[in-house]
Amino acid sequence: AVDGCTDWSVDYLKYRVLQGEPVRLKCALFYGYIRANYSQAQSVGLSLMWYRSSGLGHSDFEEPISFDGTRMSKEEDAIWFRPADIQDAGLYSCVLRNSTYCMKVSMSLTVAENDTSLCYNSNMRRREKAELSKSKEILCPDIDDYVEPGKDPDITWYKECQPKQWRASVIQKRDILSIQEVKEDDTGNYTCEIQFGGFVVRRTTELAVTAHLADQAVLKYLGLKAKTYHTELKIADQAIKWLINGIVTLLSNCTELMTACKRSSFNALTPLTDKPPKILFPYENKISNMELQLDLLLSPSGELVQSAENHPEEKQGDS
């Protein structure tokens, strides 16, 4: 039925939805492939047909979709699932054609179940970072299809799937949750929820809080040339453990770190290189224990000859 078509393969936009939630799968031809909308295509005698692949591959046999008009329906340039089911996952192709013209593109739909006892699927979360003490906006994305035109969305925000009494500096505005000053305990999973025709639509963002511990700080060690460091570190607990020459030390800021380094055996280094020593730090958070360590390698004469990096290794944290 689709032989002889100009085939644009699979569109870059991937549809992902949780089981039991509605989703509108739009024919991508009208959103970047042709200079016409659905009404204009109809007016010149073009018909829009939908097919579904029998397998997961783009080249698998495709068969026309039989719409039941209730849970799964064809509406203008889109297919509506009210709601989506696990069995709906796969590739959907829309074909625009008449007797002399044919164009086709496929869209991928993933349907996933929530993780046990949670309101989201971990693999379908968006992931973002926020810098400690700075502002951060968390977006409730891709909700236009579930909001009445001209109206603001009625969104409820949750943290770790639980209702939360937000502090005064956390402000909700339309489809954004705005954190005016990020704190360490703002790390976590944020879920926005919209009511839509008897269903709910949810979007979850995992937020990691980071800090620039030595942002624009100039380290000066015993005549070594000054360098600027930007060290980013995930923060979740108050206590951060720094490893200085094999000794674990609790330090709260960069000034204390520099002082401790000057007290350490860095004093034995001779200023024969323009590379200042790099700082060693394992760190911990509430999710897992992580290590990132830069080891100073010294020659017998005490010269700094190179730095060897041990890449992060995740250890099972205490629960």
Notes on the structure:
The chain has 319 residues and is mostly beta strands. The protein has three domains: 6-112, Immunoglobulins (Immunoglobulin-like, Sandwich); 122-210, Immunoglobulins (Immunoglobulin-like), CATH 2.60.40; 214-316, no CATH class. Helices cover 5% and strands 46% of the residues. It has helices spanning 38-43, 254-263; strands at residues 6-18, 23-26, 47-53, 62-64, 72-75, 78-81, 90-97, 102-112, 126-131, 136-139, 155-159, 162-163, 170-173, 176-179, 188-196, 199-212, 217-219, 227-229, 232-234, 241-244, 247-250, 281-284, 288-298, 304-316. The strands form seven sheets. Strands 9, 11, 12, 15, 16 and 19 form a six-stranded mixed sheet that branches. The chain has a five-stranded mixed sheet with strand order 1-8-7-3-4. A three-stranded antiparallel sheet has the order 2-6-5, with no helix packed on it. The chain is elongated and about 60 Å long. The chain starts with 5 loop residues before the first strand and ends with a strand. Residues 213-319 have low confidence and may be disordered. Belongs to the interleukin-1 receptor family. InterPro entries: Ig-like_dom, Ig-like_dom_sf, Ig-like_fold, Ig_I-set, Ig_sub, IL-1_rcpt_fam. Its main location: cytoplasm.
